[in-house]
Specification:
Residues about 1-10 have low confidence and may be disordered. By secondary structure, this protein is α/β, with parallel strands linked by helices. It has helices at about 5, 35-40, 45-55, 65-95, 115, 125-145, 230-240, 250-260, 285-300, 325-330, 350-365; strands at about 10-15, 20, 25, 35, 95-100, 150-155, 170-175, 190-200, 220-225, 225, 245-250, 265-275, 280, 315-320, 335-340, 345-350. Helix 6 (about 125-145) runs parallel beside helix 9 (about 285-300). It folds into three domains: about 5-90, no CATH class; about 95-210 and about 230-310, Dipeptide transport protein (Rossmann fold), CATH 3.40.50; about 310-365, Gyrase A, domain 2, CATH 3.30.1360. Bound molecules: zinc ion (ZN).
Amino acid sequence: MFYNSRLPDTGYRIPDTGYRIPDTGYRIPDTGYRIPFTVHRSPFTVFILNPIFVAMKQKPIKYWRLTIMKKSFVFLSALLVMAAITVSEVHGQKGLKVFISVDMEGITGVVHSDQVSSGGNDYQMARRWMTEETNAAIQGALDAGAAEIVVNDSHGSMRNILAGEVNPAARLITGSPKPLGMMQGIDETFHAVILIGYHAKAGTADATLDHTYSGGSISAFKVNGVEIGESEMNAYIAGHFNVPVVMVSGDKAVCAQVRAALGPQVVVSEVKEGIGRFAANTLTPKEAQKMIRANTTTALKKLNEFKPYKSTVPYQFEITFLYSHQAEAAMVIPGIERVSARTVRYTQANFLDGFKLFRALVTLASS
Ligand SMILES: [Zn+2]
């Protein structure tokens, strides 16, 4: 409504058509610069900028008024800066989406199967510690500005975390079986993964309840020639969806393994130090929870330092079972190569497919 009434009728009218070719614009004297009319005729100027100027009791933009033009550029620049800040906040903190996978052997105070098996005498106590450490990580994520938090119960039956006591700011994935197991719920929309209560890979000295995926069937698991544990395995799954692992809690041994594999930028929370496989020098739960909360926030506040965990494709997988008959069972699947009495090998184009086959082979070996 402003420009129609204020702009002069410039340009060349094409006869009998009603169309007009606009003028070449206003030349700023002694500068060689030209202001095209289209700037002032844009819908943004007409319907947004000028009404705001009028409301602010300022003159609306006229095509030859350089002083007002300058003001409008200042105004537009301010708008752009505000938009940039808003966008960076959405990506940096306000839209932050965090995935938390919670195992049990690496929870503070846990040292024995009695505490991690649902029929065990100390299980009810240990699952409460597990729930409290989960809440500590949730609170740490909230402190960092997380907008969405998904927790996946990742131990045994995957029904350990007390749903009624989980911070309602998060969602809880509970129960089993789940297609992605310990990483059920992860996808490319997440910004970060936190691993709570994790343990070292099978065969690690002075590591609480060390094992790899299945204590009854797996002796070692290698990816592209490197032996890995569950932390790296789940970091690869997160990496498949381009999400980095940023914080891991557990005993001293798993923290060292994670940093060696994923890099020193990963924040670790050492809640205990193994004295053999069934004993540990451990923090009390309250102290561990403080550490987990603070470290989760620290890790999430430096997200730009992390990269998703990946390796070269195709992925070669090698499983060493505890017994030779378990390797025999694996041989019923086409494409599996027997390397030795207890070891089989196969190749897949991506980690996720290789992981699914790994689960199938572990199920076969355990049956
Ligand atoms: Zn476990």
